[in-house]
Amino acid sequence: MQRDAHRRAAPDRGRTLLGPALSLIHTGQTPTRSALTRALDVTRATAGAVTAELEALGLITVDSRPAGGGRGRPSHRLAIDPEGPVVVAGQIHADGLSVTLAGLGGLLDPPVHLPLPAATDPVRMLRAVAQAGAELARSTSRRCLAAALALPNPVTEPDGTALAALHFAWPSGTPVADLYDVEVGRADHGPMAVHPLPTAIANDANLAALAEYRHGAGRGARHLLFVTSGHRGVGGALVIDGHLHTGSAGLALEVGHLTVDPQGRPCVCGNRGCLNSETDPDALFAAAGLTPEPGRPLIDQARELCWAASTDERARAAVEHVIDRLGLGLAGVANILNPDRVVLSGLHLDLLEAAPDRLRAVVAERSLWGRSGRVPIVGAELAHGALAGAAELGWGPYLADPQSVPV
Amino acid sequence: MQRDAHRRAAPDRGRTLLGPALSLIHTGQTPTRSALTRALDVTRATAGAVTAELEALGLITVDSRPAGGGRGRPSHRLAIDPEGPVVVAGQIHADGLSVTLAGLGGLLDPPVHLPLPAATDPVRMLRAVAQAGAELARSTSRRCLAAALALPNPVTEPDGTALAALHFAWPSGTPVADLYDVEVGRADHGPMAVHPLPTAIANDANLAALAEYRHGAGRGARHLLFVTSGHRGVGGALVIDGHLHTGSAGLALEVGHLTVDPQGRPCVCGNRGCLNSETDPDALFAAAGLTPEPGRPLIDQARELCWAASTDERARAAVEHVIDRLGLGLAGVANILNPDRVVLSGLHLDLLEAAPDRLRAVVAERSLWGRSGRVPIVGAELAHGALAGAAELGWGPYLADPQSVPV
DNA sequence: CGGATTTTGTTTCGAACCGGCACAAAGTAA
DNA sequence: TTACTTTGTGCCGGTTCGAAACAAAATCCG
Is the CB of residue A269 less than 8 Å from the CB of residue A255? Predict the structure, then answer.
């Protein structure tokens, strides 16, 4: 008679543990109640109550069939509810806009890509993202809880203005957080959306770092240094014990203008040999003595040059030239931050894969403390790191307090 | 009839709030129960219970006479009990050993200074510190709760071994934490000491940063960058939201070998123009075209050179030369960490005071984000920062859980 | 000077949250 | 089948904190 009963009333246990418990399930670390008991260091009774509460909130499901294993009573698998709520995750990048829906567990729907609108002023671009997200939200039966956006520019905190949006000539100080909130408020996200829909924005490198930390190559690290390279230049981010360190104004880890070759190429900042100008596609082509074909995206051609390093002598030499400078920059930052893992993305990931041993050797050579300073350098694992990070940003308040999820 | 009653039994409130409350009183932020109520965001009832518990533990006193002020019933001042427990704080530096007793509130007894023993092997130096501390502990009627030590070398975590103890030729990897614990265990700290006396060690720059954050020039900062220069070279430390960031192995912020002048002076690390070799006393004298007098401590002469900058043209030029390089290094680190305050100590403090505007201008010029990157640069306030930090280290467990203080 | 007002401190009660324990459930091992 | 191991749940109680009423001690103001 107890089977298929109505969802039980909220238990009198596990209120403050809901957040940590959901975060563990969200990152795939605790597939069973028993694992939750150990990870949270609570009694089985408490873990059971927490599980029941999360199930009642419609966030997780408990597998009806036991998952066998060793001796003793088998545990039931806990999983993110595939029909649970979603957030809208968006990204603005040099090529256009990307939008997707994201449930818990780091699971993204296949992203929708839109070309850059003809007018790239802030309001119209943010409106395009908000409307594309609203369309996705209307198309699903799942509740929509938030809309979050990744930007290719530094974002100040706590006011949420964008700085130096080079690609789109946005004025520095554009209040992107406020503008996006307005546009999301105007767009119709359908009857299943929370009203008003909470919004959040952050820098794409920071968000990609957060996503890698929770669902990708950064799992299990304590201090994760993330470095990426793309159209905009070099972006860095630091995750400390699960929290992004964005500095007092959101401007930490802007490592693009670290000097790695005093006699190097000139940079827009006025100096020579910045990490930006020494490890971007132009630097790679210059080192190879080649000129990129006009018309095709520069970043794609640079990646092909990396892939050619195993067969083409000139490509190999160019890759090594750039890698030596990247290694200097990474060692400098690692000596300051002493991370226990470094994750590379973008063009830096292609450089790493072209000559992993050389990059690791250069960094180790410049690390101050020998063995203690030897830090693992690995590649990013997520295909859409910034989008996945935007999803994390949107989910943030609900992961901290699952009871704030509307019924 | 209630006056001078026995200390009341422990109340049924404020157990988990004891630590935060004591920390607030410890840092002088909440001199009254009413301020505690606001700072902890609890009810007056809870703040009152917390206060009573801390008083019962013998850690604080409540002033019997009201402290007047505005309207309404006056509040009673809360203060650290001057007869409360102490910890032994020690420091090993190039000139010798320093030891003192420290109560809560950042209050140090006048330190006792000892010359370096003839034999500078680890065991004998640690024994000398432990015995000097034991003598102090025996001489007081206050209970002694811990012994903590500041070392001039990088200290790895969590194992507590010292690296590169240049001045004393200690082998890299010396297990200082274990050795000090043994020596403290052997020394007699008197009948009022906890047995066995807990011990802790850490790097002096990190500890000085922590002390400045809690009791000195870093009060109120969120992200504090601390940089000091002394006999050993440059030491850095970072406090994030009240916690030291020592990196995954305790080796963060070792900024001495940041390159600030590619054509600069050679450094022991093999490169040229490291922050160490460009801002140490030798660099200052070289820039002035002077040779220090033999016999007198180099650091003292360098400080005198800084003080002479206002009157002596050659000293002024030398100070500005060094300051320009120090500014480059500070800007580089600040661009990575985005702190909201920079505190300078040691010779760097003398440089700052000799030409504060120039140093601030150099850093601002090299900061990436204009106004947003302009960070206050101030001098350290504590006379014995590392010793005060060692006291903080020793008090740490009790600040986190005041109930662990033995009755 | 004396009551009104304001602010602080205390007492009492109850709610929320979690551990301990006993028991039940569901598998494996022999 | 029996013993054992491990997992899940119901019940009790303890700890901790908030709400509210009350009490206390000052200033304000007529």
Answer: no
